[in-house]
Amino acid sequence: MAQTTLRKIAPFLAGALLAVSCSSSKKVSSPVAQREDVKGNWVLNTITYDGVPSGQKVKITLLDEGSEACLTGSTWSLPNNGNGSYTINASAAGCTPGQRNIVWSYQKSGDQVIFQYKILPGGVKPKNVTDGYRFKLVSASETSMQLQSEVSFEGKPLYINYSFSKQ
């Protein structure tokens, strides 16, 4: 009896298997941005914060450079070879204007794209630098890019958003 039932449903199972194997494949969505979208020359236009109660001021040192006034307007050169730089233009109190040489990279971590860089003091090789910065790459296009970092502020997560425009 089991063999008879199997003979009757076998053509249907084979047909179903054939239909599934021949169906069109689904396109896997690509990450938020590709490396090509990140490379180029950028200006850091604005820095905003998420996770801070309305009206509360945040005073933190960003990227070991100073306040957001130091970084706003900075120019970033991110060539394809990963050896780039950024230049602090601000002369606000506590800012040290000038160019910082960096090595940057783009990585995929699951569905998330990570942008990271290390500052290279004069003559130091990247492999000898252990400290650096990592950002979630929120978006990048031909004209704009947004990076986000998470820090702890008063025991809660604080998200710092860096918005760039392409030069």
From TrEMBL:
Source organism (scientific name): Terrimonas ginsenosidimutans
Name of the featured protein: Lipocalin family protein
